[in-house]
Amino acid sequence: MLPDGDERELESSEEGGAAGEERRPERHGNTYHSLYGYCRPCGQGAAPGDGSAAETPSGEDFSLSLLDTNLPVEAETELRSFLAKRLTKGALFEGMGNVVSVGLSIPEYKVGCYYCRFQQENLLEMATLESDANAQEYVVCFLGGSEKGLELFRLELDKYIQSLKINLDLEQKTLETSVKPHLSSWFENAVCPIQRVVQLFQEKLAFLLHAALSYTPVEVKNADERTEKDISRFLAAASLQGLVQEGTMTSLCIAMTEEQHKSIIIDCTGPQPQLHNAGSNRFCEDWMHAFVNGAEGGNPFLFRQILENFKLKAIQDINNLKRFIRQAEMNHYALFKCYMFLKNCGSGDILLKIVKVEHAEMPEARNVVTVLEEFMRETSVA
User: Fold this and answer.
1) How far apart are CA 308 and CA 2, in angstroms?
2) DSSP H or E segment with residue 136
């Protein structure tokens, strides 16, 4: 996650100091891909999960053959040379994507590069069982934007590789019909969903942010497949999963479902989605404006950074509230500080639910939370 101050740094190129207009090409074009067959003799590769460089094949013990690319010839040769060096050093482990910045003979010169070595899904088990067979593997590269921008999407790209494994087949027919379209659409499918959701929902994005933070169930109706997937990916990216204890998120999801008895319904029948049973708060509305204002620049990497900053601020608020609650167990003035914090932070409704779940087994803290709930109810009634 990135602090607010890193926003300008992310938009800049690796050379730094680019003007706003010069950053815009990072948006679309000039995104590239390359897929290679990676073949090494049996027994030469490191075992899965083994980081030993001694068992990694030398440059003479493997072949890297081009299967598909949209790079110019000279740039592809440079990329292959870079990958060969990484393979020689043992820097590519199966299924683990990496992001670096590479300089190639392309108009952008220096671009972010995600690369990953993997095996075809149905061959992974066979390679383990048949140790006498040569291990046929693949190396895929996605290039575009900056290193810092692509790093924000590394998990999405790792998942994208999983779907590539399923589509990949040694037959040329499958390569043409399934694999090449999958490779050429990596940017649209892995990087642009957040941007498309922002453009679709506009001011209504606050409701999605609120649903993601509170783990409120969402049901999408009358949407095409891509829109439904985009919304699902946005909600997953905006949630605090992985940042807050897993047990807390599970309990919160159950509590929200039991409390409301209704999912948020997103109806995409018309040009603008209609939301039913949706809630929001000042915190989510403030961050919605940050997204909408960022839409003018059209930079998908910036949207992801704003989303990371949104989650970072939510985590900071949760930690501050938990600290105030610990103090309030011994100090009545700290209890008042808790109340004022909840009142002014803009997301008191969600924060209180989260800490209530986390402190369910702690009697003193639970008592503080109960008092705060009563304060907040009285304030809302008044």
Assistant:
1) 6
2) strand 135-143
Segment among 20-24, 250-254, 338-342 with least mean pLDDT: 20-24
Cα 196 to chain centroid distance, Å, stands at 15
The structure tokens listed for 120 are 């075809």
pTM: 0.80
The CA distance from 126 to 340, in Å, is 61
- Residue 53 φ/ψ region, left for φ over 0, alpha for ψ in the -120 to 50 degree band, beta for the rest: alpha
Q: Which long-range contacts (CB under 8 A, 24 or more apart) does 118-122 make?
A: 118/94, 118/161, 118/164, 118/165, 119/94, 119/165, 120/165, 120/168, 120/169, 120/170, 121/165, 121/166, 121/168
User: Per DSSP, what are the bridge partners of residue 101?
Assistant: 112
| Three-class SS of 28-58 | CCCCEEEEEEEEECCCCCCCCCCCCHHHCCC
pLDDT in tens, 261-295: 578 999 999 989 999 999 999 999 999 999 999 87
Report domain extents, the chain: 4-191, 193-310, 314-381
Task: Find out whether 83 and 139 touch, Cβ atoms under 8 Å.
Answer: yes
Residue 265 and residue 275 in contact, taking contact as beta carbons nearer than 8 Å: yes
Burial class (CB in 10 A: 0-12, 13-18, 19+), 53: exposed
Query: What sign has the CA pseudo-torsion 342, 291, 249, 207?
Result: positive
Residue with tokens 């690369």: 115
